[in-house]
What does this fold into?
Amino acid sequence: MPSGLVEFPAIARLYSDPRITREDDGLLHYDGLYPSLSELLDVIVHKYPRRVAVKDGMRSTTYAQLWANAAHIAGGLKTQGAAIGDRIVIGGAHSVRWVEAFVGAILAGGVPVPMPVGAPTTDAKILDSGASFVLDGALPEGTSFIDDGASPDELALLCYNGSGFGVELSNENVLSAVESIVHARGFDDGGLCNLMVTTAVTPITMVVELLSTLVVGGTAVITERVDPVYWRSTGADVLTASPTVLADVTTRHPVTDFGRRAVRWIDYSAASAQEEEALRSAFPNARHFSGWGRTETCGSGFVLPDGYESTHADSIGVPFGGMEIALFGPGAEQGRGELLCRGPAVTRGYWLQPQETERRFRGGWFHTGNTVTIDSEGFVRIVDSEHAA
It folds into this structure.
């Protein structure tokens, strides 16, 4: 163990999961994951073919229709020369069409590169990815094609962080993040509805929230509207939006009745104390989740359990989903230092950035750059936050 590094093992007791075990490489992994996103989606589609998978303001599509349309897009990409592992940019507004393009890229054997809404085709991140295709506008169409030969350690997703580095996320990374969120929130397969208000939502949040909904046979309602009347009409069980958008709507509009009647889960990670208070008041009967994650951790990793907000309001919570943590630095023994992470959802490194990868990923740990404290119960508090996402 490097000097000045102190590990904090076995502190995920609030979200323990018997499917997570330590394997021969010394790291924690999920047992029983499907090898790839395409194989998981294949199983889900055949389990819930007639359920509505995705809605937007213009269209809705069932799981069977989504799969068929995405397979035709994959066929069109193959006709145009798409090869296994090609990076495929997914652009444009979030919608049913966006989801079809995203799944189509996966079925073509490509690596989706989700971009923020409005990013131009000349965006530096698109150029950096070396993408062979940009799906923004008319989508290709051809004979149905489905590639399902990927393995857990193959690149599944390339997402750019706030510093402009491409984060390489494997099938295991993405599937582990999805499993951890479903388990921590207690999502069921009864047909939940996730209202995804995509204004200001990061690409990695969009992907993981979408997949967490689809994996339980739920419906993702995708919108940029912040109209509470529309929100009520969706019958949403889950609200996914940036905390600023959520708090603004609840402060300026009477959505309390909507919250009391329908919403069962709400996530406001990165919310300010004022935003958190407004959301808890507006949705008193929902399960509330506040936490922390980076693109490098698939947007997840820590959660403040519901009911701990009064005693641990300044904490990002405890690790979950097989996330292990350590402190690094001269004060590590006293519970203060740089936060280090490792786990099944943590990336292997950065795209075409060997020096940055070497700097950030040392000794099997992701060096976050955030200075934190960790108390005796395992709750983490950020005291100096690096500007990255």
About this structure: Residues 35-151 form a domain with the Rossmann fold fold (CATH 3.40.50.980). The chain has a mean pLDDT of 90. The two ends are 28 Å apart (CA to CA). The longest helix spans residues 63-79.
